[in-house]
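Notes from the 1:1 (GR / supervisor)

We went over the backlog. Supervisor wanted to see one worked example end to end before approving the batch request, so GR pasted a single chain during the call. The sequence is below; no edits were made to it. Supervisor asked that the structure be written out right there so they could see what the output format looks like.
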Amino acid sequence: MNNHNLLSLDVRPIIAKGNDPFKEIMETVNKLSNEQTLEIINSFEPIPLINKLKREGYITWIEKSEKGIVHTYFKKATELKSSVESSLEKIDIAFDEKFKQFVGKLKQIDVRNLDMPEPMTTILEELEMLPLGNALFVEHKKVPQFLLPELEERKFEILYNKKTENHIQLLIFKA
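Structure output shown during the call:
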């Protein structure tokens, strides 16, 4: 592979600062030409990212070094279509109406102070225990991009209520 066809992004410093590298990764993905390959350098396999980009038509492979460094490669197999963009279109003023339907049948959690990937795993664990006909109300820092395809796969719907730039409320329930 030619070096000019490889876009490399080391996300370890971003994660070390307690930030989510998703935005930088997706900005880099969106810059990829059909001939280019994206290399993500990390200390673990980014399974949610791999799953997301596979669904969007990317092929992927992983190489691990002896030093515990994981190199994950993504190459465009088809044209990129963003499920994130279509999911964000679901932001709806119906949040309050739907919220009222679940009064008395809500489980509330706050994941704003958890480090990655704990918000996603906590939400998925809570949803597994959620009785049918109930909803999960989540206080979050942002729209959880990696969670959206997982919810879709599990037949959950999600509504958003943006309180501030770093505070969003999620209402998650079975479709």
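Supervisor's comment: The domain at 85-174 is CATH 3.30.110.40 (Translation Initiation Factor IF3).
Batch request approved.
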